[in-house]
Fold this sequence. Notes:
Strand 5 and strand 6 (127-139) form a beta hairpin. Helices cover 24% and strands 37% of the residues. Strands 1-2-4-5-6-3 form a six-stranded antiparallel β-sheet. The longest helix is centred in the last third of the chain and has 13 residues, at 96-108. The chain has four helices and six strands. Pfam families: DUF4442.
Amino acid sequence: MRFYPPLLFQRIWVVKFDKGFKGVQVKIVKSVLNKNYNNAIFGGTIFSAADPFYPVLFHQLLIQKGYKLKVWSKSSSIHYLKPGASDLYFTIALTDAEIEHAEMILNTEGKYMVHHPIEIYNKDGEMCVSVTIEVYLRNLNFTSTNL
């Protein structure tokens, strides 16, 4: 994903995907391409960094298990706590319990929506941004006769 243009040009780097796509580490590199007039990372860049990763994790995990899905970020909220004056970092992960719960709902109701928090930190470990992403998953193989 490092070379995906919307991430590349905003200097959003995937540091590492965890084994089996259960998590990801992301770095937002401060550069001339994403600085705002206050010499901090542009808020739109930060928001763009947070947006895709929970849907990507769910999609990759579940297609490996044979699901045919529609997955996207349904809604988001963001709270800027302090300027991102340096590179920013975040790590997100899905637990086995979260994955099992999503599968159970997908198999009984056909769609699953969940909110996930993301905390974004600067190089000194100070939280600069708090984001909540609502992920929407639809099991395209689900029919009401599955009940």
